[in-house]
TrEMBL record:
Catalytic activity, EC: 1.3.1.98
Pathway: Cell wall biogenesis; peptidoglycan biosynthesis
Gene from which this protein is expressed: murB
Enzyme class: oxidoreductase
Protein name: UDP-N-acetylenolpyruvoylglucosamine reductase
NCBIfam families, alphabetized: murB (TIGR00179), PRK13905.1 (NF010480)
Cited PROSITE patterns: FAD_PCMH
Compartment list: Cytoplasm
InterPro entries for the chain: FAD-bd_PCMH, FAD-bd_PCMH-like_sf, FAD-bd_PCMH_sub1, FAD-bd_PCMH_sub2, MurB, MurB_C, MurB_C_sf, Oxid_FAD_bind_N
Principal cellular location given in the protein's record: cytoplasm
UniProt organism field: Lentibacillus cibarius
Amino acid sequence: MVNDEQIYERLIAITSAENVLVDESLEDHTYTRLGGNADYYVMPETYQEVQDIVKLSNQEHIPFTLLGNGSNLIIKDGGIRGIVLNLGRLTDISTDGIYMIAQSGARIIDASREALSHSLTGLEFACGIPGTVGGALFMNAGAYGGEIKDVLVSTVVVDRHGELLTLTAEDLDLAYRSSNIPEKGYIVLEATFALEEGDGDAIKAVMDDLTYKRESKQPLEYPSCGSVFKRPPGYFAGKLIQDSELQGQQIGGAQVSLKHAGFIINKEGATATEYIDLIHHVQKTVKEKFDVNLEREVKIIGEDSVR
């Protein structure tokens, strides 16, 4: 592998010095406010830059990690080696009739608001989802009875070799909180949604109602990764956790929320290790009490030990 100085020089040649941060703390880039440092935190501004960074990673065998806006993610205390790619500068959203094209770094909340501004219905469910468009495709994000696969038509991605591909929604094998994007190693660059013409006042009323439900029931006043667990068949994760008398349980600075049992909050200076240990404790307790396996919705990445 090329040395550190050469990696840095090649990265800034692809994009620019202001888009490449060295030994960057990832606490500032996740909703949990957890995680160690990234060797190189890179924020490309064009699709070509993304392709070139992937190709550099392949050529020089540099570890490579794609990071969204960190809303459904826990990064371990040891941080992430190699290149961490953030697409937060790819945020354009445009509409053409009933079709919306949104770049992957745009927030899915902003896409839902853009749809409202054009009186387009179909994305109301996303008005409270904190992730990016790319992250929403990655996990087929959903809420309140809607999900991405209901409205997605196609997507532009970069594959593991740095090649640009246009795929249909069917190509992604979208299912409950999952897709084949991680398995295939795709990097989502943009998505095209097919919406329907609707009544602006009615769309706003739905979004206002969903926003109220989210803000009144979720512990948004604390850092968290959002809903930690998938819904087990025939059950609700939050109800199982509540019935296991786990609300308020704490390991270090991490706590099972008193407001919504499906959330674990960073109440007071938690480490990623404490947060993850509490997740495991919840899974173990629910399994023992109800014989139900709680499967994580949140993704955990990075290294355990601090360098």
